[in-house]
Specification:
Among the domains are: about 80 residues, no CATH class; about 80 residues. It has about 450 residues and is an all-alpha fold. It is built from 25 helices and no strands. It is a multi-pass membrane protein. It comes from Angiostrongylus cantonensis (Rat lungworm). InterPro entries: Ankyrin_rpt (IPR002110), Ankyrin_rpt-contain_sf (IPR036770), Ion_trans_dom (IPR005821), TRP_dom (IPR013555), TRPC_channel (IPR002153). One of its GO terms (molecular function) is store-operated calcium channel activity.
């Protein structure tokens, strides 16, 4: 009879919580010996969860004052996006010394609807709830970055042996939290750069864990969308420079040092670079130093300026080598001027190659069968001024590739197929020069030996 009376009181207690009857709940709580405050209904909900679902803050405070077990109630509050309830539960957990930055006071049992790896800050990040995320970050809570998928530490090996599916799902849950825009803005030092790196990492994981490829790719696209949305919030060039540099000291003479741009271009994410704000900034940097309003000038002025810079590239290059800090050298460093100088230089190089090929054709025509006696004398001729100029140009091209290899490193250099093409082209140039040198040596050395013998014979006479 006593057991039946206790169950009746529990049903009455849960029903009063459902209806929000504070008075009845207080009366039932006063009879503590006959009531289990942690009782649950057929759905597995205790009174605290019912109050959270009904957003009854007064009921939540009453139940917490009577020391009801919170278990995973804070997760339910976050799931309902009831920020006030979350704050009240956190204060209660801190008061009874159950809150810590690791699990944030959550106790997951076999009846819980959440997985053991789920923490309040991770769930808040899944919901992208800014207020809840900030609350837990202020409490020194963090979202731990998952170990590398190939990690062989004791924890990873044990988790993989026990349940590989659970390990994969926990990794996805962590990355889903890390890609939360609110969490990135609140915790990352450079939000855009962090989003780029995270997007690249998720794309790499999508090729390793093929079973979850669609989920990883979705998270990767989420990071890319975040970076583009950040650009939509920019109101001026100054703000854009600060965002890309992530510094409050962004100034004109440092405009070319955009780490976010470099990572994004390497990452092949077109949406960010193609954004109108970025395109306008890039255009301003590209035409910098050519006078105000160069892009709006008429076509004749542009053509004359381009022709003048292209024809004067030898003077600009020599000035840069002699006085690299002079005004002319600073003008030469401008991106568009540098592009015009390189283009003009390469055009001259192609003309030299054309001239050298025409000379070879004439030699081939001269050395036919009727000129067979002179054929040996024509083999291995000394280099002409045109060929000497070509050798100088080739050495310059090789020096450019060496500088690029030194600045970017072997791995990044080899990842760019254009660099591989340049390496092959320069190798062919060097091979041609080497073969010409060998031919010259093989022809001239015997003739020099014969000449010496003739001179010695003449001297003996």
């Amino acid at each position: 009879l006593h057991l039946g009376d206790s169950r009746f009181r529990e049903k009455q207690f849960l029903l009063s919580c459902e209806r929000g009857d504070i008075g009845s709940v207080k009366k039932l709580l006063a009879i503590k010996d006959c009531l289990n405050i942690n009782c649950v209904d057929p759905l597995g909900r205790n009174a605290l969860l019912i109050a959270i679902e009904n957003e009854n803050i007064e009921m939540i405070e009453l139940l917490l004052d009577n020391n009801i077990e919170t278990v995973d109630a804070i997760l339910y509050a976050i799931g309902e996006e009831n920020v006030e309830a979350v704050e009240i539960i956190v204060e209660h957990l801190e008061k009874i010394d159950k809150f810590n930055p690791e699990n944030q006071g959550v106790e997951i049992n076999e009846h819980s609807a959440f997985t053991p790896d789920m923490t309040p800050i991770i769930l808040a990040a899944h919901k992208d709830n800014y207020e809840c995320i900030k609350l837990f970050l202020d409490k020194k809570s963090t979202v731990p970055h998952p170990h590398d998928i190939h990690c062989s530490c004791h924890d990873c090996v044990t988790a993989r042996e026990e349940d590989s599916l659970r390990l994969s799902r926990s990794r996805i849950n962590a990355y889903r939290a890390l890609t939360s825009p609110s969490l990135i803005c609140l915790s990352a030092k450079d939000p855009i750069l962090y989003a780029f790196e995270l997007s690249w990492e998720l794309r790499r994981l999508s090729y390793i864990e093929n079973e979850f490829r669609s989920e990883y790719q979705e998270l990767s696209q989420k990071c890319q969308k975040f970076s583009v949305n950040m650009l939509d919030q920019i109101r001026g060039s100054k703000e854009l420079e600060i965002v890309l540099n992530h510094t409050t000291n962004a100034c004109v003479h440092r405009r070319e040092n955009f780490s976010s741009f470099a990572i994004q271009i390497l990452d092949n994410t077109i949406q960010f670079v193609a954004h109108p704000n970025c395109q306008q900034l890039l255009a301003g940097i590209w035409y910098e130093g050519l006078g105000p309003g160069f892009r709006n000038r008429n076509i004749i002025y542009k053509c004359l300026l381009i022709a003048a810079v292209g024809l004067s590239f030898p003077i600009l290059s020599i000035s840069y080598l002699i006085a690299p800090k002079s005004a002319v050298a600073r003008f030469t460093r401008r991106p568009f001027v540098k592009f015009l100088s390189h283009s003009a230089s390469y055009m001259v190089f192609l003309v030299l190659l054309l001239m050298a090929s025409q000379r070879n054709d004439k030699i081939d025509n001269m050395f036919r069968e009727e000129n067979a006696p002179d054929r040996k004398e024509g083999r291995g001729p000394p280099p002409t001024p045109v060929e000497v100029a070509i050798i100088i140009w080739v050495l310059g091209l090789i020096w450019v590739e060496i500088k690029q290899l030194w600045n970017s490193g072997l791995y990044d250099y080899c990842n760019n197929l254009w660099n591989i093409l340049d390496f092959i082209t320069n190798s062919l140039y060097l091979s041609t020069v080497a073969l010409r040198a060998v031919a010259y040596y093989q022809v001239r050395v015997p003739y020099a030996h014969i000449r010496i013998v003739e001179l010695l014979s003449y001297a003996s006479l």
